[in-house]
Structures are given as structure tokens and as C-alpha cells.
Specification:
Elements lengths: L3 H12 L5 H11 L5 H13 L6 H13 L12 H8 L6 H11 L15 H6 L11 H8 L11 H4 L37 H12 L49 H10 L6 H13 L14 H7 L1 H10 L6 H10 L4 H13 L4 H17 L3 H20 L9 H10 L4 H13 L1
Length: about 425
């Protein structure tokens, strides 16, 4: 848990039971960095579990260090407060020790009780008067100094059956007796210890090698029996080794499928195709309608194809009507800049397939909005004529129900009534009222 040098330092502090406790606590804080306080306190807590491990004065020093190591925090934040409470409520312990811990726990709230830290452990033992101390019950101490969550700590059955790491050996030399003087004991053939009695050497060894775990019984239990296999279980739980070979018919297939039409579509995105190239695209689509999924067209590329080759765009969109991405193509077509070619594509689509009503209405609204927002009068008049002819075609072919857009189209005709096509569209609307 701690190294050799740290164990020597900690042992020297425990042996300084004639020094004031506040000086020992200050030296502990100066020699042990904050990050190893927990390890050092764990060592002290383990040593204090066995009453024969330390002398009475050393035990008082250990309890003082456990308390003062976390004195700047609340009592409930001290991870070793339960150790102090257990020692204070131990009826088998010396009354001197219990009274010391009671006063120690009171130093956080009482200024007069802090006087205990100005004494040494030896002076406290010599001046102890049993008649002047009253011991609080365990539940009151836990309520005052512990969190509610720590009032009833978890007690494992296996831990109660465990054997402690350090147990007294009846055959040890006399130097380890609690009442015997410190004698230096050197086993035959071993190097003599310098400055350590046998007790100090044993404690130093424990500090360097012991762990928080006791020697507990192994939790051995038999393997559970296998559950019988049910009919509805997954196949992978009961694998079948009678596999059949499956032939990949796509292996070594011609990977050049659609290469010709991909090249033509790539050219169609950059400029108009000559009639011979257009016929080749239509021929490939007629021969294999599913080749449209391998031609390289994406929704993002649709505006370029519409502007350069509207007829090819119409044929591709017709073949893509059953595709899961057709909604994306319609969204791009609605939001692209209005032009003669885009209206031609939409007009041809309306006569070839059943387009969603929402798409047609949205496209008409976009056309009207584009005509209203254009600044160039010449281009505005030209686009208005195109839109009016486009709307008349949709109405005469009964592609749209004019009543759904009657107010919007009527306002459009009135705004551009100076244009002949708008006036003609307005008269057509009047006949349909």
C-alpha cells in the first residue's frame, strides 16, 4: 500500500506519542502529499483493527491522524469516520481510547475540545478521568457525523467468514510482546535491522505488504445445467453443420453494364446531346429500364440535365417514378430556377405520369413567385407568357383542379393583365367559374 520510506515515516509518527498531537498531524500533512493520504490512512485503519498490533499511545496517534487528515472537510466527507465511530462504540476497548475518539469527533464543532490536540497521547492517558466522560450511543454518533446513506453499511456474509491478514503468532520472540521492551531481534543468517525492534520491523513489513482484502473463502458454485433447446430459438444458438454451397451468379459478371449510358449522361450534364446520342440513350433505357439506376444521375445533378437536355430528363424521371428517391428529384425540380426547359419537363411529366398534386401546386406557386420577383421587364414579360401558356395547358388537359389555385392564379392574371396571354388565361378562368 505504501513504500518503504513512507512506512518508516508513518511508523516514526506513531512512535512519537509523547509529542503534541497537532504537531504530529502537521508533520503528517507535510510529509505525505494529498494524493497518498488515503493509502496512508488505510494502513492506519488496518493496523487499528487488531488491538494488540499497536501500543495504547500509538493507537491514539493513529486515530488522531485518521481524523485530522480530512479535518478541512465535513465529518460526513471523511471516508474513515465510520472507523472512528466503530472504535468509539466498541465496548471491549479501553475507556481511555473511546473517550479520546469522542472528544476528537467534537473538535469540528467545539473550540474548547480542540485542546485535546495540544496534548500528547501519553499525557492524555495519564490524565484521563473516567468519571468525567459520558459515551454517546452509536445511532446518535452516526446521525451526527455520518451521511444517511452510511448509517447501515453493507455487510457481506463472506467478509464475516474471512480471516484477517495479520494474526498474532504465539511463537514469536519476546520482543513482540506488548508489555516487553523493544529488543532488536535478528534471525540467524539475516542482516541485522538498524534502528528497528522486532515489533517495529513487523509493523513496517505489514505497512508495505498488506492489502485491504482479507483471506476470504472462495465463492465456488457448480455450473448451472443447460436449458433444453426450444423450437423457436435462434439458429445460431444451435448451429447446423450441414451447410449447402451457394453460387454467386454475379461473380465474374460484366461490370461494364451502363458504361455507355453513363458516358452519355455525363456529356448531357455539360451540354446538349446531338440527335444520334439522344436516340442511343432512349434505346438503352428501352432495352433495360433498370439501367436508369446505374446511369450516374443524382438529384443534385438534375438541374444541369434539365437545362441542357430536357427530353432526356423527362425519360429518366419517368423511369425513376417507382424509385425511393423520386421525392428528392421532385424537391430539386420545384426549387430550381424557373425556366422554359423546367416548365417543359414538368408539362411533359404531367401528361405522361400521375404526378403528386402537392408537387404540381408547389411548382405553379414557384412559377408565379418567380414572375413577380424578377426585375427585368423584358424577361418578366417573357416568363409571364410562358407561365400563362403552361397553366392553360394544365387546365385544358385537366391536370389540375383550377379551383384549388383559383384565387392565386386570378390575382396573377390581374397583376399582369397588360400581357395578352395573361388576359387570355383570365378569360379561361371566368368560363370555369
Amino acid at each position: 500500500m505504501i513504500g518503504v520510506e513512507d512506512s518508516k515515516t508513518l511508523l516514526s509518527l506513531l512512535n512519537a506519542d509523547e509529542r503534541p498531537l497537532e504537531e504530529i498531524a502537521a508533520e503528517f500533512s507535510s510529509k505525505f502529499p494529498r494524493e497518498i493520504h488515503f493509502n496512508a490512512c488505510c494502513s492506519l485503519a488496518t493496523l487499528s483493527e487488531d488491538k494488540k498490533m499497536l501500543k495504547p499511545g500509538q493507537r491514539l496517534v493513529a486515530f488522531a491522524l485518521l481524523h485530522q487528515a480530512y479535518s478541512k472537510q465535513q465529518s460526513s466527507s471523511n471516508p474513515f469516520v465510520s472507523v472512528l465511530i466503530n472504535a468509539a462504540c466498541d465496548d471491549t476497548a479501553e475507556k481511555t481510547e473511546r473517550a479520546f475518539i469522542h472528544q476528537l469527533l467534537g473538535t469540528a464543532s467545539s473550540s474548547t475540545s480542540k485542546e485535546i490536540l495540544k496534548q500528547s497521547a501519553v499525557d492524555f492517558i495519564k490524565g484521563f478521568d473516567p468519571s468525567s466522560h459520558a459515551f454517546l450511543p452509536r445511532d446518535q454518533l452516526q446521525k451526527q457525523y455520518c451521511d444517511n446513506s452510511q448509517e447501515e453499511p453493507y455487510d457481506c456474509l463472506f467478509r464475516r467468514s474471512a480471516v484477517k491478514n495479520a494474526i498474532p503468532d504465539p511463537d514469536v520472540p519476546r520482543g513482540c510482546d506488548a508489555n516487553a521492551p523493544e529488543l532488536e531481534f535478528t534471525p540467524p543468517g539475516a542482516k541485522p535491522r538498524i534502528g528497528y525492534g522486532e515489533r517495529d520491523g513487523a509493523i513496517a513489513g505489514l505497512l508495505q505488504n498488506m492489502s485491504l482484502e482479507a483471506l476470504g473463502p472462495q465463492w465456488i458454485r457448480p455450473l448451472p445445467p443447460r436449458i433444453p433447446i426450444q423450437d423457436g430459438e435462434h439458429v445460431w444458438l444451435n448451429p447446423d453443420n450441414t451447410h449447402e454451397l451457394l453460387w454467386d451468379y454475379g461473380m465474374c459478371a460484366d461490370t461494364s453494364r451502363g458504361a455507355a449510358i453513363r458516358d452519355l449522361i455525363a456529356k448531357a450534364l455539360k451540354g446538349p446531346l446531338v440527335p444520334q446520342q439522344q436516340e442511343q440513350v432512349l434505346f438503352e433505357l428501352e432495352k433495360d429500364p433498370k439501367i436508369v439506376y446505374h446511369c450516374g444521375l443524382t438529384p443534385r445533378k438534375l438541374p444541369e440535365l434539365v437545362e441542357h437536355n430536357p427530353l432526356i430528363a423527362v425519360e429518366l424521371l419517368i423511369k425513376l417514378m417507382n424509385s425511393a428517391e423520386i421525392a428528392e428529384y421532385f424537391t430539386v425540380l420545384v426549387n430550381m430556377e424557373m425556366s422554359l426547359h423546367s416548365m417543359e419537363v414538368v408539362n411533359r411529366l404531367t401528361t405522361a405520369v400521375d404526378l403528386p398534386t402537392e408537387f404540381v401546386h408547389m411548382y405553379i406557386t414557384n412559377c408565379i413567385s418567380s414572375c413577380e420577383n424578377i426585375k427585368d421587364k423584358y424577361m418578366q414579360n417573357r416568363l409571364v407568357r410562358l407561365v400563362c401558356v403552361f397553366l392553360q395547358s394544365l387546365i385544358r388537359n385537366k391536370i389540375i383542379n383550377v379551383q384549388d389555385l383559383f384565387i392565386e392564379v386570378q390575382a396573377f392574371c390581374i397583376e399582369f393583365s397588360r400581357i395578352r396571354e395573361a388576359a387570355g388565361l383570365f378569360r379561361l378562368l371566368k368560363t370555369l367559374e
